[in-house]
Structure formats: structure tokens, C-alpha cells
Specification:
The protein has 155 residues and is α/β, with parallel strands linked by helices. It has six helices and six strands, in the order E-H-H-E-E-E-E-E-H-H-H-H. 42% of the residues lie in helices and 23% in strands.
Length: 155
């Protein structure tokens, strides 16, 4: 699974405005409603329920909120860079400014895990994150995300 399987230029939000974790998830749900056939409040409910299980703030300013939905035909991603970092109750207690939202079919199973692993590997790369934070606009963010291939560093 590649990042290009998850996102398109339309699913990049270069300057999301939010002042809290809940507001961030609400705004992400608003954008996600435009790319998947689900209502904003249903998306938000799934994301909040997942956060109750444990934070999706993985550290180093990155969060990967995710959820499963019946009726989706494939995994969908949405990337947002916050204009100001927010407290996301992250594992390292650092505020979050880079978020990759992942929404997958209810029956995704291994595909869900593959997508999460790919996103996690990509956003664990400090150089990629620095480029994302310093980039101008959605086109540049999309290019950085889709050209990043941390798996080639690992082997």
C-alpha cells in the first residue's frame, strides 16, 4: 500500500484552524465528509470513540486518527497541517500539528493495518515532517507525502 492509494490533492488541508483536540477532529470530519460517503457527525463519532480507547497522537507533533466504516470501498486518507499545534494528549505530551486521518472499510482487516503502518513509517521520518512543516500549500505537501518512501531506508 502506498500513500498515493490513500490521498489525493483534494484531501490535503495545508492550514487547518483549530484550538483543541475535539475541534481538530470536528474540522477533520467536515473535510472528510467531502471525500467519503459518510455524514460529518458519523465520522466525528467514530473518531471520538477511537480516541476514548487511547490517543492517536503518536508523538513528535504527529497524530493518526482513524476509524472503520461500513460501506467504504477502500481506505481513504486526509492530511492536515494545523496552523497552530494543539494538545492531542500525545504519547510524548507534545502538541500536534501534523495529522493524517485514515478512514477504512469496516471489513478492512489487514489493509487497515497496512495503511496505518505506511502512514506511521512516513510520518516517523523527521526529515519528511520538517519538509511538511516548512512547505507552502497543498501541492507541496502532496508532493512531499507521495514522494516520501521511508521503506527504502529500512531494508
Amino acid at each position: 500500500m502506498e500513500i498515493t492509494d490513500l490521498i489525493s490533492l483534494d484531501s490535503i488541508v495545508p492550514d487547518l484552524k483549530a484550538s483543541s483536540k475535539k475541534q481538530t477532529l470536528q474540522e477533520l470530519s467536515n473535510y472528510a465528509e467531502k471525500i467519503i460517503p459518510q455524514a460529518q457527525h458519523d465520522i466525528l463519532d467514530v473518531l471520538l470513540e477511537r480516541e476514548r480507547l487511547g490517543t492517536t497522537g503518536v508523538g513528535h507533533g504527529v497524530a493518526i486518527p482513524h476509524g472503520k466504516f461500513p460501506g467504504l470501498d477502500r481506505p481513504y486518507g486526509l492530511f492536515a497541517r494545523l496552523d497552530q499545534a494543539v494538545d492531542f494528549e500525545s504519547l510524548d505530551d507534545q502538541p500536534v500539528d501534523l495529522i493524517f486521518l485514515l478512514l477504512v472499510p469496516e471489513t478492512a482487516g489487514a489493509d487497515h493495518l497496512k495503511a496505518l503502518a505506511k502512514v506511521s513509517r512516513t510520518l516517523r521520518d523527521k526529515t519528511v515532517c520538517e519538509k511538511l512543516r516548512g512547505s507552502e500549500g497543498g501541492d507541496a505537501i502532496y508532493a512531499i507525502l507521495t514522494s516520501a518512501s521511508p521503506s527504502s531506508h529500512a531494508a
